[in-house]
Design a protein that fits this description.
The chain has 211 residues and is mainly alpha-helical. The protein contains nine helices and three strands. A hairpin with a 2-residue loop joins strand 1 and strand 2.
C-alpha cells in the first residue's frame, strides 16, 4: 500500500472529528484562524515530505507504524468517554505520527504535530481555562511596574487598585491571542527548519516567556 493511501484511510476513519470541526466553525462559537494554521501545516508537509507516493514496503524496515497504531487504538478505546475536543487531539496525534513516519522520516515531528493541534478551534477553551490565571499574572506583574512610576497601585485579584478606583484587567488583556499567534509562528519555524525535539522545546519556552 502507498503511504498516501494509509493517510486517506486514517482520514476517513476519523470522520466524526471532521464533522465536529465543521460544525464548530459553522456555528461561529470559535475563531476561524485554525483554518489558516491547517493550510500552513499542509503546505509545510508537502514541502518537506519526501517519497510520499512511494510504496511503503520500500522503507518499512527502518520506519515503524507503531506510534500511529497506538494513537489510533487510544482514540478508538476512549471515543465513547471523552469530549469532542479530546477526540480531535487524539485523532490529530495519530495523523501527525503517521505523516511524520511516512513523509518526514521521524516517529513524531513535533512542529507538524503542534500545527495540527493549533488548527483546532481552541480559543473558546483557552479563554475558559487560561483567562483568569493569565489575567491574575498580568495584574501581579503590572502593579509593581506601575509603582515604579510613582503611582500607589496594588493588585487585587485580577484588578488594579489605585486609591478608591478599581481598574479591571479584562479578557483581552490576558494576552491569549498574542500567545496563540506567537506559538503558531514558533511551530511554523520549527516545522520549516526541521528542529529537533529539545531545540523545539527551548524555542517554545523562550517564546512564551517573551510574550
Amino acid at each position: 500500500m502507498k503511504p498516501l493511501g494509509l493517510l486517506c484511510l486514517q482520514f476517513f476513519a476519523f470522520w466524526p472529528v471532521w464533522l465536529w470541526y465543521v460544525q464548530r466553525m459553522a456555528t461561529g462559537t470559535d475563531e476561524r484562524w485554525g483554518l489558516w494554521v491547517l493550510v500552513t501545516a499542509i503546505v509545510l508537509f508537502a514541502r518537506r515530505g519526501r517519497n510520499i507516493l512511494r510504496p511503503y514496503r520500500e522503507y518499512h524496515d527502518r520506519l515503524s507504524l507503531g506510534f500511529p497504531l497506538l494513537f489510533t487504538c487510544v482514540y478508538a478505546v476512549t471515543y465513547p468517554f471523552v469530549p469532542p475536543l479530546v477526540r480531535a487531539i487524539l485523532a490529530l496525534l495519530a495523523m501527525a505520527s503517521l505523516g511524520s513516519v511516512i513523509g518526514l522520516g521521524r516517529p513524531l515531528h513535533f512542529g507538524f504535530l503542534g500545527l495540527l493541534w493549533f488548527s483546532l478551534p481552541l480559543f473558546a477553551s483557552l479563554h475558559f481555562y487560561l483567562s483568569y490565571p493569565l489575567r491574575f499574572l498580568v495584574a501581579s506583574v503590572a502593579a509593581p511596574l506601575i509603582r515604579l512610576s510613582g503611582f500607589a497601585v496594588y493588585q487585587t485579584g485580577t484588578a488594579l487598585a489605585w486609591g478608591e478606583r478599581l481598574i479591571s484587567v479584562d479578557a483581552p488583556c490576558s494576552g491569549i491571542h498574542m500567545l496563540w499567534v506567537a506559538t503558531y509562528f514558533a511551530f511554523t519555524l520549527i516545522c520549516y527548519s526541521s528542529f529537533a525535539f529539545i531545540p523545539s522545546l527551548k524555542l517554545l519556552f523562550l517564546t512564551w516567556v517573551i510574550v
